[in-house]
């Protein structure tokens, strides 16, 4: 698996993502991760990747919200910005779980 351009997991690896393609400024991906990792090490790797991946999506969503705001679509921008806050809150919890797994 490999991350998209500039994406790294919490371990600094770019090899955790499979099927991530850039096309005209948008990326498309397929997740081939097993939901229940067989080992703690696999769970650490997957969780580290997912946090970094979510952060990347939050950045993209922030840009989208700003674009919508620039187009006069403040209501849509507000909703998107709310989702970014949710991504960030979820990632705090995922980072805490990641830290516990790393112990």
Average residue-wise pLDDT:
79
N-C termini distance: 25 Å
* Sheet with the most strands, sense and barrel status: 2 strands, antiparallel
Low-confidence stretches: 1-5, 15-24
- Taken as a percent bin, the fraction of beta residues is 5-15%
DSSP helical segment count:
2
- Rg on CA atoms, Å: 15 Å
Query: What is the approximate shape?
Result: elongated
Verbal overview:
This protein has helices at residues 40-70, 74-102, and strands spanning 21-23, 26-28. A hairpin with a 2-residue loop joins β1 (21-23) and β2. α1 (40-70) packs antiparallel against α2 (74-102). It has two helices and two strands. It has a two-stranded antiparallel sheet. The chain is mainly α and 103 residues long.
Q: Descriptors for this entry?
A:
two-stranded antiparallel sheet; 103 residues; mainly alpha
What's this entry about, in short?
It contains two helices and two strands.
Please specify the SSE layout and strand pairing.
Blueprint: E1 21-23, E2 26-28, H1 40-70, H2 74-102
Antiparallel strand pairs: 1-2
Helix pairs in contact: 1-2
